[in-house]
Amino acid sequence: MDFTTMDIATLTRSVAGEGVRYLELFLKEYVSLFGGPVNPSCPKCLNEYLIRYKKHFTTMENPSKYRLHARYENIPLEFGSPILVNNGNITDAYAEKLLEQENGERYFLHIPEKQKQVSDQVADLKKAARKARNKKKEGPVITDVPPAETSANDTAQ
């Protein structure tokens, strides 16, 4: 049974198919994970148990080493994208997509060391490509051309 998707009302009022209350099943699983005595008659305590249980599983689910700055929580993955990236759902693929954006490193509080080296190399390649494009726009600059020899016939015409 997945208690991470349930709210406190469902947990306290619903009954499983065998006639066992969800609350009883939840508290057994909670005690097996965290130990200690629990108080099933305290609504505030039950809410805290459920929050602790959910936090435990949401932090376990995300193996990504990337961490976003707090101000960039729920940032769109790309322009116009319906996917909002936060520290709870960030994956390596999402992080790479954010890093591809111009100055993408600003979004992250923590980037794994291996990725930092790769992203620095990518940034260097992008700079080199920009410089090459700008030189093509300017046209070739030729500085080592000897002055043209002019003859009397060329100047008279």
Give the biggest sheet. Answer: 2 strands, antiparallel
Structural class designation: mainly alpha
Give the assembly state of these chains. Answer: single chain
Arithmetic mean of pLDDT: 79
Number of helices: 6
Placed side by side, the strands forming the largest sheet appear as 1-4
Element string (H = helix, E = strand): HHHEEEHEHH
- End-to-end separation in angstroms reads 97 Å
Helix content: 40-55%
**How many independent structural domains?**
2
Share in β-strands: 5-15%
Please tag this protein with its features.
mainly alpha, 157 residues, 6% strand, two-stranded antiparallel ribbon, 50% helix
Question: What would your notes on this structure say?
Answer:
The chain is mainly alpha-helical and 157 residues long. The protein folds into 2 domains: 3-61, no CATH class; 67-136, no CATH class. It is built from 6 helices and 4 strands. A two-stranded antiparallel ribbon has the order 1-4. The chain starts with 7 loop residues before the first helix and ends with a helix. The model has no long low-confidence stretch (mean pLDDT 79).
Quick overview of this protein structure:
By secondary structure, the protein is mostly helical. It has 6 helices and 4 strands.
Secondary structure elements and pairings:
Blueprint: H1 8-13, H2 22-34, H3 43-61, E1 67-68, E2 75-76, E3 84-85, H4 92-100, E4 108-110, H5 113-138, H6 152-156
Antiparallel strand pairs: 1-4, 2-3
